[in-house]
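Record type: monomer structure entry
Structure origin: computed from sequence
Chain ID: A
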Amino acid sequence: MPHLTRTTRGAASTEVRIGFGVPGFAHPLVAPVEWAELARPGTPLKWVVLNVANGPGERPDPHCLEAAGRLRNAGVRVLGHLDTMYGARPFGELVSDAHRYLDWYLVDGFRLDRCPSGRAALPEVDRTVTTLRALVDDAHIVLGHGTHPHPGYAETGDELVTFAGPWSDYRWSQVAEWTADHPPERFCHLVHGVPRGHLDEALRIARWQGASTIYFTDRVDGAGAGDPWESMPGYWDDIVSRVGTGVSE
């Protein structure tokens, strides 16, 4: 277990420039407003995940193609969703899904959801990522650990999701000491159940911990509420204005 601390970043962390990584809305027919809003000029988006049916689906979907095309035309990276099942998903299935995403939606990279975080799984994840990079020029790879993984994963993915969970955990979370060796552009935090009144506090935590990609929502998980990422937060305009329109890459 890596050593954890809240003090590795120091005062300079307040200068971290924040942008959004969207983990994936519901299908465009179910969430048309959300997908349209993402294409609005000036929104500080770094990437958006396209998750058709826990992956690319069985056949091309014209509605998803249109939504992805609008974003790519606006200069936003669109990433395919690949569920690694914490390392249980066969390599061939992941590569097959990647080919479908590329053939059908021209994605710019991939988010490996439920990515393993232990040292033992690192060689297989590295093998998968190396193969994905061979398929896409300048592929952007996000490793969706949801927790701090073994430091070796920082040499494999372009970004690591080092927190994914509820605000009740995030507000007391700590950052792994080794992350201070990497720039904020390498880390992403996804937090649900964030009350509007705590947005400034949540943004301070992200900056202090050195994560420049975030997605905060007031939607909650569990108790029949569904996936908290499927719809846009009620304070979307508010958080966009707080983050600003400039994204530093």
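Annotation 1: Residues 1-14 have pLDDT under 50 and may be disordered.
Annotation 2: Residues 91-105 form the longest helix (15 residues).
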